[in-house]
């Protein structure tokens, strides 16, 4: 039996897990992901994520550069088809602006028998949930998640989504808010948000959550500056109902940002 | 020193962790949450979530009924203020339509010195990420999360958000799609979605993901029935770009549902 027939018959021992490592702290890696890594022969991913995996005998690490997602995906599928036990690592959750979609894009363009491979996505703690938890519960009511990078979509679509999300009164979580290559984009986002949501709306800048570099800042939109975000920053804008609980004691506890679970019924018109 | 002064000075040994247990499988509970549970004196939560916690000496379990969220939150804060080590458990992530916002609502209405308590939110794998991972990567591009229960908000606001989310071309993840008390609501949601997104749009019904009762079904919106969802079902509707990869072999592998990472630039008008 050749390799193609073996894959189609489910007889290959190879598998591919696309796993989320969470935001950085090892205590946020699920046991499911830890078990997949323990059973892997190959780990593939962006350099800083592969750097989080401890080397051991029998494990081949394949770090690769950013923006090489499709090449990396084909490489991973190819190794699994050869019988290797492959983990593709993403930070956060692999299904949220990360490697899972890239692997499936590659799978669609690949030899048909690869579709019979054992491919699993192992969820992780995505950045917005880690940031939200640290700040309180800003995503405690309806919300949306938008990737602000225009590498992969037209800029006007980003602006359209921001306006509609504001009209829907979603809290908004922004991934990839600001890159060195296009710092002006995030400045335009902040302008648009001030226009749609007003200057008083709270905005959270949560940098490198759960790592030693963690830094949280909650400001009003009117005081938000583009420089408050970099590519390690998760940005969350509240809905119209998002609130801040100040903690006034001398214990240096940060304020709590949260969105109540409920929206009250509109007051009935007393005339009708 | 009385209890109030002790809390304000940070001298109480009590703490409150609001922890996410993930969708059901113990392999999806983070080590951070496991450690908090191991150090707890009291665990508080909705009956089926507290039932997941193994009893041990020195641990008091406080299961309570659904819809008692605010009472439960006050109880938890009160125990922490008395020096207890309290974990409030939610399924999934506590910050997504769960107990974290309820605790902060209760905190705002409580004695001011409770604001000095050690309160942490410990993130978990929320249902939409678990469901998405099982099906492929339907949330691989911009998306929104909407709680379809109208217990806590006016029904017209739900419809407004659905229309705006469809116009924004978000993938949509729906929590609490259907209850016995209001089965007609989800039927109206499906009608509205067919009107906004067309009959061909894929919709995922992911029931009890990661438990022995897990069941996944992907259908076209035109074939979706209200009965396909219950309160244990996570529903995800794709964006206009969400795709299905069929796996035609005899191995009974389910189809893969995913949303590509990119949206192409519009084709330039050849006249201009």
From TrEMBL, chains A, B:
User: Domain Tetrapyrrole methylase spans what residues?
Assistant: 16-223
Q: What does the record give as its pathway?
A: Cofactor biosynthesis; adenosylcobalamin biosynthesis
On whether Transferase is a keyword of this UniProt record, the answer is yes
Q: Which UniProt keywords apply?
A: Cobalamin biosynthesis, Methyltransferase, S-adenosyl-L-methionine, Transferase
Molecular-function GO terms, alphabetical: precorrin-3B C17-methyltransferase activity
Q: Which SUPFAM superfamilies match?
A: Tetrapyrrole methylase
Top EC class for this record: transferase
Record NCBIfam families? cobJ_cbiH
What PANTHER family does UniProt report for this protein, alphabetically? COBALT-FACTOR III C(17)-METHYLTRANSFERASE-RELATED (PTHR47036:SF1)
Which protein is depicted? Precorrin-3B C(17)-methyltransferase
Q: Which organism is it from?
A: Sphingobium fluviale
Q: What are the top taxonomic ranks of the organism?
A: Bacteria, Pseudomonadati, Pseudomonadota, Alphaproteobacteria, Sphingomonadales
Q: Which gene encodes it?
A: cobJ
